[in-house]
Amino acid sequence: MLREDVTDAIRAAVFEELASVGFARMSIEGIARRAGVGKTAVYRRWKSKLALVLDLVSAVASQGLPAPATGSLYGDVRAVLELAAYALRHPVASQVIPDLLVEAARNPEISDAIKAALLDQQQGVAAVVVREAVARGELPGGSDPDRALDLIVGPLYWRLAVVRGDLPKGYLDDLAASAVAALRQH
Amino acid sequence: MLREDVTDAIRAAVFEELASVGFARMSIEGIARRAGVGKTAVYRRWKSKLALVLDLVSAVASQGLPAPATGSLYGDVRAVLELAAYALRHPVASQVIPDLLVEAARNPEISDAIKAALLDQQQGVAAVVVREAVARGELPGGSDPDRALDLIVGPLYWRLAVVRGDLPKGYLDDLAASAVAALRQH
DNA sequence: TTGCGACGATACGGTTGCGTTCCGTCGACA
DNA sequence: TGTCGACGGAACGCAACCGTATCGTCGCAA
What we know:
2 copies of one chain form a homodimer. The first copy, chain A, has 186 residues and is an all-alpha fold. Chain A contains 9 helices and no strands. Chain A has helices spanning 4-21, 28-35, 39-43, 49-61, 73-89, 91-104, 108-136, 145-162, 171-184. The first copy, chain A, is elongated, with a radius of gyration of 19 Å. Chain B binds a DNA duplex (30 and 30 nucleotides) through residues 1-3, 6, 27-30, 32, 36-41, 43-44, 48.
């Protein structure tokens, strides 16, 4: 019976509120205000701020993350970086993701949700990329997928989400080549 | 005339409060409570929560960060990683640093302070390490220090502060070798 | 036409933190 | 011994938000 357009407006408002003030400062009153909706409409759907955010994050998680299959380690790494850079340059995501990651350090429920929505997805992709590279003979057997993820995504995350620097043309290519060199090391 | 022991108690309380609830949720009342001090004592010293934190961060910045000079690129990189890992494994710092970095994305004053206290320091160290490696012939001329910092610190930050995974024995050695391989690439 | 359910709006009491003011205490110094 | 200034503590009015309740409105289906 709940009107879907209202639900969508609330969901959108949560993302905007999350991006502009962060989870800690976010209020249900603020969400309702931004969505042009009564508080009642929000409480009719979710019982708390936490439930609301967990619901949104879980929705993202269920989308799944496609594993690249370009036929080469460099190509796969480059594809992962492309996707990650796209997300981290998005104005909303680049605020929301680090914010929720920090919040996750204090709240196990958020931690679990974020892990399922982002980290597990990425680790899955990394595992596939590594496995295929090993099968191709591009990497030695027993290569650690977690280490691979550190080396591939770490530098990009550092630059875009931590230092918040720019991304010069060709930098992703360079990063991919660097990551491959690092992965091959030893 | 202000009593120094009170000032110290407040400073310590700010760090603890910052670590346990984060900047956004931190309140002056909470700080005073934790320090066992009246609100008056806090307001007598700083005019706002922001001023308080900026003062602490600036104090950290003025300490300076020693640049390693081990005589080899691998040694320097390993030393940088050791120091960074020490900081990021510290229970207080590992909460406070990511928290303030996120806050910096929304507040230019915090951004400037954090940049001066952490990022500029690290970039300075990276610049020295790269310059000396170039002089030694270990890296080609024109190597970008910012890129070097991404490749050295990025993977470690990702693992310790983002994924919040553990740090297996020997991982820093491996990371240093991987970073050197990445830096040498191209 | 009537009834129902979701809607936006408004108000409620309660809690928390803000920044300020005032109090009585206590220690240092003259 | 008296003065002075920082102290902890308590209270202030104000603002925001909590979660709930109660309005009247509106659209739809019987």
